[in-house]
TrEMBL record:
Gene3D superfamilies: FAD/NAD(P)-binding domain (3.50.50.60). It is found in: Cytoplasm. Belongs to the MnmG family. TrmFO subfamily. The lineage of its organism: Bacteria, Bacillati, Bacillota, Erysipelotrichia, Erysipelotrichales. The keyword Magnesium does not apply. It catalyses: uridine(54) in tRNA + (6R)-5,10-methylene-5,6,7,8-tetrahydrofolate + NADH + H(+) = 5-methyluridine(54) in tRNA + (6S)-5,6,7,8-tetrahydrofolate + NAD(+); uridine(54) in tRNA + (6R)-5,10-methylene-5,6,7,8-tetrahydrofolate + NADPH + H(+) = 5-methyluridine(54) in tRNA + (6S)-5,6,7,8-tetrahydrofolate + NADP(+). The keyword tRNA processing applies. Pfam families: GIDA. GO terms for biological process: tRNA methylation; tRNA wobble uridine modification. This is Methylenetetrahydrofolate--tRNA-(uracil-5-)-methyltransferase TrmFO. Coiled coil: none annotated.
Amino acid sequence: MKKQQVRVIGAGLAGSEAAYQLAKKGYQVELVEMRSVKMTPAHVTENFAELVCSNSFRSNDITNAVGLLKEEMRLLDSIIMKQGDLHQLPAGSALAVDRDGFSESVTNQLKSMDNITFVNQEFVEFDNMPTIVATGPLTSDTFSKYLMNYLGQSELHFYDAIAPIVSVDNINFDIAYRKSRYDKGDGQDYINCPMTKDEFFAFYDAILRSEEAPMREFEDVNVFEGCMPVEVMAKRGMKTMLFGPLKPVGLEKPNGSKPYAVVQLRQDNAAGSLYNLVGFQTRLKWGDQKKVIQLIPGLENVEIVRYGVMHRNTFIKSPLILNRHYQTLKNSNLFFAGQISGVEGYVESAASGLFAALNMIQHLEEKPLIELSSETMMGSMANYVANANPHQFQPMNANFGLIANRLKDREEMAERSITHIKELIDTIS
């Protein structure tokens, strides 16, 4: 017997994960994606789960919050983690992926599932079909305005930026060198461009003198702290950069000397031909970006294959709208997932899509929604989304500060979390 039809709006990380979880349980899934009928300012392909900013899923260490979240997702058969692991690139202790191979594989797996129907159009209005909204940070203007009216909210957005990508071909390895911070991974996963004090001051001054690209829709830019443009960091002072993405700690040069500052480049594709500038999100004008990048030692003649840009991110004021199951208080048939729900980051978005889908299944089968312990990373994120201060609500990355009943030993917290997830699997399988 065919199970009920469920709609998932948006085929990003959260939507792809939600569609997969529903489809593998036998539900008829209508997956709505507006690309290519209507493209966003940041996407460049029509593939599902396209990574528009960094290609890093961050740490794989379970004593790191996002590393623990990834392990929870692996236990719950996450398509995003499965394909991320299959398309892993060298990145020390982090999980970085070949962005094209990753999104193509997610797309192919979803399209191979007979009970997923793909609808290529912009979604504009709810009906009575059970629905998970996972339209992500680049939700269309039309649907954003509809949501504002439907949810009774006055605004639904903030802004963040994308880092440039360069070709490896013209990097000067007489200056640049391969090394992971503290030699993690195989010790050679990043390309490092070291700066002397004078070189850093010249670089810093060039950023301050550069012109930002105008943004058509606003004057006062509300920038998310977790994806801060490099020029915003520079305006806060040079120490913001030296203790942030340009910190030299653990990145000694091959001769053993310590640079004053280091710009790191992370592999962006499987071929190893493209690298992105770590922590170098920017909205500078492209001509100024080129001048600033070519001031980085080792990158004087580098080819920039994609310039950094700023784009709008959309999120709802979730504590007024959602419960801790990602279900709306207004409509039990309506769930939200991904960055629009108030989580921040690739892995966090996919995790919320997974958890929203599991709860949608419980709802459709008239079973109690999942009371996942806040001693898990996934449960603590859902609790934050539902119970944070609504008047100061901002999207949040996974972090141990969200975990209930914190312990000094993070390994013990990780083991406790994994035990909870295994108990959940026993109850829903």
